[in-house]
Design brief:
Blueprint (H helix, E strand, L loop, with lengths): L4 H23 L2 H8 L4 H7 L2 H19 L4 H5 L1 H14 L2 H13 L8 H20 L9 H17 L1 H7 L8 H16 L2
Helix pairs in contact: 1-2, 1-4, 1-7, 6-9, 6-11, 8-9, 9-11
Amino acid sequence: MAWDTEKTKRLLQDAAVAEFAEHGFGGARVDRIAKAAGVNKERIYQYFGNKEQLFATVLDCELAKLARAVPLTPEAAADLPEHVGRVYDYHVAHPHFARLLHWEALELGGDRALPAEQERTAHYANKAAAIAGAQKAGAVDGALDARVLMMAVVSLAQMWNALPQVARMLMPVTGQDGPETRRAAVVALAAKIAAP
């Protein structure tokens, strides 16, 4: 029987997402990733090189999933509040994503180069350009720098998952204050920020 390399890589990456989201880069253990994937840990080194390269691969894949699921096209930028709502929905469905980004900031941030930093910088520049285009077209307020606006909407979209303990204290989930109420608040805030 032939070895299914792609399936093994997927199993390792899925296990690595869970491990890195739970324990961060420093606390993650290669042996736990391998055990969760049901794969010999030597495969991690064979396919990914080392733990840092595996973390970089995980981040790259997770960022690409978000970019594919909720692209910020010029059309989406023209309705920025709804785009923010869709990104919020993505974060609710994938709570590990905000944790991965926060672990990256805590453990790998600062002056050190981040995984795929140049590609990610270009990706964010394209998003800011889409917002700038919506500003020029009059669909979005032009008073703020498009990059600042992009940072604001990124923060709005992930704030509930980035700080769940604060969200729980400010707005406990009850029959009336569930994810739909939070989404509506995020969209309303984005509308106020972006209103031309």
